[in-house]
Specification:
about 130 residues; Immunoglobulin-like; five-stranded antiparallel β-sheet; four-stranded antiparallel β-sheet; elongated
C-alpha cells in the first residue's frame, strides 16, 4: 500500500491487475485501484476535482481530469474517511499513476491541492 499525507489529508492506494483483452486490435491491460482519503486535519474538507497523469510502459502519458471521484464530491469532517474504487486501461503490462485532488477547506473556504503519490501498475508475472 502506498500512502502520503498533504495538509492533514492522508491518501492510501492499493492496486490490482484485473486482466487483459483485445480492443480494436490492440492488447489492453486492465488495472483497478482502491483509494482511501482520510481527513486527519481539524477542519471539514470537500473534494472538488481530480487530476491524473497516467504513464504506460512505453512512457506514453495520458492526462485525466474532472469533477469529483466516481461521480461524487465527498465532504469529510475531521477523522472521517472516504473510500472508492476505479480503474484504468494500459497498452502495456506496466505503468504508473500520480496526481492530485483539488479540495476546499470548508471552515476557511481556502482551496488547496492534495497530492496523490505515484503508484505502480503491473501484471504480477511480469516482475517475476
Amino acid at each position: 500500500m502506498i500512502q502520503q499525507v498533504t495538509r492533514g489529508i492522508k491518501i492510501s492506494v492499493e492496486t490490482h491487475f484485473e486482466g487483459s483483452f483485445y480492443k480494436e486490435y490492440k492488447m489492453q491491460f486492465a488495472f483497478g485501484y482502491k483509494i482511501t482519503i482520510e481527513n486527519q486535519s481539524n477542519n471539514s474538507v470537500k473534494l472538488e476535482s481530480r487530476f491524473w497523469e497516467i504513464k504506460d510502459a512505453l512512457n506514453v502519458t495520458k492526462i485525466v481530469s474532472g469533477e469529483g471521484v466516481v461521480g461524487r464530491k465527498p465532504v469529510l469532517k475531521p477523522g472521517e474517511k472516504h473510500t472508492y474504487q476505479s480503474g484504468c486501461l494500459l497498452t502495456g503490462p506496466m505503468g504508473a499513476m500520480k496526481g492530485h485532488y483539488n479540495m476546499i477547506n470548508l471552515d476557511t473556504t481556502q482551496n488547496f491541492k492534495v497530492k496523490i503519490p505515484s503508484f505502480k501498475l503491473s501484471v504480477s508475472h511480469v516482475l517475476n
